[in-house]
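User: Before I run my own analysis I want an independent prediction to cross-check against. Here's the chain; please return only the structure tokens and, at the end, one sentence I can use as a sanity check.
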Amino acid sequence: MLRDELVSYLDSYLRIGEIADYGPQGLQVEGKAEVRKIVALVDSHQPCVEAALERGADLMLVHHGLFWGHEKCIAGSFGKLVRTFIQNDLNLYAAHLALDAHPEVGNNAELARLLGVTVTDWWGNAKGTPLAALGELPEPISMDELTARYTRAVGSVKLALAHGPATIRRVGILSGFGATSIQQAADLGCDAFVTGETSHAQYYEALNAGINVLYGGHYGTETVGVQALGRHLAEKFGLEYEFVDLPTGI
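Assistant: Structure tokens:
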């Protein structure tokens, strides 16, 4: 498939031009004109690029791209990273907030699906776009069961705080660093809030708000979107696709 056709589809499907972000999104590095294999990862740093190249990637699909709203000299480790893309004619396509927010293959929509949550609304604006999913479980479950579901479907849970109701029905979901949205989730009537990482300051916020919080890790909660998007592209265009799991532990 021609790269330009694939990029045009991705830009439209993800609404790249409509969703403001912290840096330019979409095709960040232009490589070879034809794409046969997509390799998806969460990040775009040196070990990630090398893993994609080892697997014969024509296009690397990531959540965290190279650019974050400030100029950087193409020197040092960043220079080496950029040269690796260019010397290997490797395309890099990044989708950050656009992937968090996508109602079909986004991180939060996919987390909801995997946890059995039916999405009823969106909240948690970032740069003017609601990223977080709000939904309901068909039957109430315990915090232990929510934790077990996450572990089975996504991976290990970093921290589970049972500070809320014994049974959970309404759930808020915000991948990545969403701990600062605990009170908003509680105000929306959530029995539990699923997010990625936290800091010490948010422990008592959850306790005081009376809400269960599951921290799946920043990396862990953002593995699901690139996988869902990669599968979508493989099915729609008959492209070869592979996901590479390079966890950061955070």
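Sanity check: The longest helix spans residues 223-237.
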